[in-house]
Design the sequence.
C-alpha cells in the first residue's frame, strides 16, 4: 500500500508541509509506504495545448511534447494506491503550481473516449488497473474556519477533478484555518501571514486524515471512478 503526497507549496518548511508530513505519519501507522514530493523541486512546464496527449487514445500515460519531470511524477501516481494533494490557499484557490500541474496531467491521465449524459468525447480514466483514493490538505494564511466558503474554492475543484484522473474517489479533506496565538492588534493584521501558527488540533486532524486515507485503501473500500460519482454533489 503506497500513499503519495504531492505538495504545491512554495515554502519547504511551511504550514502546508508540516500538515502533509503529519498526515503521512498517520498513513504509515496504518502500514502505508509513503513518499512526499514538493512540486516546486521539479521541472513542470506550462501546457501549450499542442494536443499530443489528447490525440493518443491507447497509452496508460499519454505522451507530451515537453521533456520535463511530469512523466516521472505521473508514473509515481500510477504506482500509488492513494494520493494526497497539499496546497496553500492563494487568492481563494490552490497555488498556480498546483493548477499548472493539474492542467498538465489532464489528458495524460484521461482519454477523450468517455460519455456523460449522452455527451460523447468526455474524459475518462486511463489508469484503470486499480482504484486510487485521494485526499487534500489546504492551508489559509489569515482566513478563519467560518469564512472558508469565501476563500477555499480549490478544495471543491480538486474533489471534482482528481477522482477521474486517478480512477478512484475522493476520501477526505482538511482546511487548516489561520490561528494566531494572541489577539492581533490593528497594526499586526498587515503581518498576519508571518504570525499564524498551527495548532495541536490541526496537526492531529492531519494525522487522522492520513490514517483515514490509508484505512480506506487497506480495507479495499475505494471505488473505481464512475461518472455518476461526479454528479452526486449536484443532486
Sequence:
Amino acid at each position: 500500500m503506497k500513499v503519495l503526497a504531492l505538495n504545491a507549496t512554495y515554502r519547504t518548511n511551511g504550514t502546508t508541509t508540516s500538515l502533509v508530513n503529519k498526515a503521512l505519519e498517520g498513513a504509515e501507522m496504518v502500514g502505508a509506504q509513503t513518499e512526499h514530493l514538493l512540486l516546486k523541486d521539479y521541472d513542470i512546464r506550462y501546457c501549450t495545448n499542442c494536443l499530443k496527449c489528447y490525440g493518443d487514445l491507447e497509452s496508460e500515460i499519454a505522451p507530451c511534447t515537453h521533456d520535463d519531470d511530469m512523466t516521472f511524477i505521473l508514473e509515481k501516481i500510477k504506482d500509488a494506491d492513494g494520493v494526497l494533494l497539499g496546497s496553500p490557499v492563494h487568492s481563494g484557490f490552490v497555488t498556480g503550481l498546483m493548477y499548472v500541474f493539474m492542467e498538465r496531467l489532464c489528458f495524460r491521465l484521461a482519454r477523450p473516449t468517455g460519455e456523460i449524459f449522452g455527451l460523447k468525447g468526455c474524459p475518462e480514466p486511463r489508469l484503470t488497473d486499480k482504484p486510487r483514493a485521494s485526499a487534500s490538505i489546504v492551508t489559509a494564511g489569515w482566513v478563519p474556519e467560518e469564512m472558508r466558503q469565501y476563500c477555499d474554492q480549490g478544495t471543491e475543484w480538486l474533489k471534482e477533478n482528481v477522482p477521474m484522473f486517478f480512477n478512484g474517489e475522493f476520501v477526505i479533506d482538511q482546511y487548516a484555518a489561520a490561528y494566531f496565538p494572541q489577539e492581533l492588534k490593528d497594526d499586526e493584521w498587515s503581518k498576519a501571514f508571518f504570525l499564524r501558527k498551527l495548532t495541536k488540533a490541526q496537526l492531529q486532524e492531519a494525522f487522522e486524515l492520513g490514517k483515514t486515507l490509508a484505512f480506506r485503501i487497506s480495507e479495499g473500500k475505494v471505488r473505481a471512478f464512475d461518472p455518476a460519482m461526479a454528479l452526486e454533489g449536484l443532486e
